[in-house]
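[Meeting: bench + compute handoff]

Bench side (C.D.) handed over the final construct sequence. Compute side (W.E.) agreed to return the predicted structure before the next meeting so the bench team could plan truncations. Sequence as handed over:
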Amino acid sequence: MFEKFRENRRLRNEELEELIEITKQQEEEARITEESRWGAEWTGNITRTDFTQDEIDLFHELGDRALCTKVMPELYVDNAALAIKNQLENVQYTKKAGYSWMLSSFANLRYMVEIREYLRKHPRAVIVNLDQKLNTLYFRVNNGRLRWYNVACENVLNLRNDLNMDTFSNVTQITGNPENLEWIARIPFKKGDGLIILADTAIRSWNPSQVKEMLLALDKISSQALILMNCSGGKAGRGRDRFTFYSLNAKDALHGWLTDKKTRIYATSYPDPDLLRILEGPARRDIKKLYQQGNQIVVIIKL
């Protein structure tokens, strides 16, 4: 009788394990199907090798995302950054201290999720990439129907051209200084299509009044815009960034500017717990400390 009980339990365990395996396979197939809907492949061939020091300084965050893709793909994958970095092996730059090189991937993962969710409702949305140097999010979120605008100074756009980053038909470059807001009038935006502003860390060098002016101007032209910013606060921003928050509470400060009750503001000053579990001891401790000091506050504004 006991042997029969053990045999029945063994069979049930095998059935359960088989069911778990089937579920995992189905989830992986669903993930692959979902990923196939998004993105684009970077297939450029970089022939230039004489980069200036100012240009090399622009490679940092791209290199950070390439490193994350190579050594920690379970956190974030940026194949475009990795492919570009692989062709720039002779370009050397100083590696960031500790694990701060992961911060860009933490932020880009959040942006990717938010942008994809927005595009499900507004597939023809206009996305404005504000002075984000060698940003590669286009390669993770392109749906073939969006319109992407890179707004930056001439030397940045020239570098992107040298790296073959903006060769797609739905990508347009606009030369100018994002801080003076003239780019808003140059974007062929239709209200029904949706609008995403990817400001990321660019606004850290702005005067706070300029950030406020941009937010209020966007609030006037679109009642459904999505604005993505990467801010600093507390110790980390003091004496370093022009636009920073006194504490880690960015939400209340921004609500003082954007008073419409329909406006939703999400300010995350701590790392995603699920992503933290991926990291091992030293990396986990360093990332938590960087967030606690205010090095990265990801702000999502939904007008």
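W.E. noted at the follow-up: The first strand starts at residue 126 and ends at 130. C.D. will use this when planning the next construct.
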